[in-house]
Give the backbone structure.
Amino acid sequence: MFKEVAKKIKNSKKIVFVTGAGISQESGIPTFRGKDGLWRKYDVMQLATINAFYENPLLVWEWYNERRKGIFAAKPNPGHYAIAELGKYVDVVVLTQNIDGLHQRAGSLNVLELHGSIIRIKCTVCNFKEEIKNELNDVLPICKCGNILRPDVVWFGESLDQDIWKHAIIHASQCDVMIITGTSLVVSPANTLPIYAKQNNAMLIEINPEKTVMSLNMDYSLRKSSAVALSEFVSIFRN
Ligand code: APR
């Protein structure tokens, strides 16, 4: 099976990656679902919502500050580096649900952050947006306009940035190989991207140690970690 997949990948013109929390798991960043789905006593799914933020902004900021610290301290792993290296041999686009910036730090040039970035903050009211270089000092940061600031991420109950999403659909619809890794594919609309690729007759490859809700729709499912499987893929191009 691997040989067949390898041949297809080697002959591909455009590979689109759809990535999720699992690709950063080997960098020490916890995933959301499964055993990592708790932060202190809170269900993380309940914290990543616009309602949770307005009900208890301090708590949600505390969660993001703690995660940001972990992310700043983390390093890209061989999975991120393999994707960046693949970009030297073939047209590669990364459509990521991750907000950790590790694909970019590994050197990937074409990354669309579907769910925003933990490294940026924005105002809840005006157009202010800024990249965070150092840890925030304020427990509850306030914008110059007087309104509360928030992480520049997409929460449950919010829409994706429409421009980013439009481009994500275009890339997914144009690829001949889509590699889906580190995502449980339960969150919409990112989990519709494989459908756009399939409409272009693309080959769908899932890399995930666990089965997902869409495993049966894949052409190939590799039950490996992303770091292991992607390192194997990139070696096909080196040889
Ligand atoms: N390599 C590849 N996959 C892995 C690895 C690994 N080393 N470790 C875990 N996984 C897989 C898990 O089996 C699981 O299927 O990664 C997936 C992680 O799933 P989720 O935690 O649901 O993460 P994700 O799909 O990115 O979540 C989507 O939900 O909470 C929101 O906005 C948040 O972007 C996030 C979205």
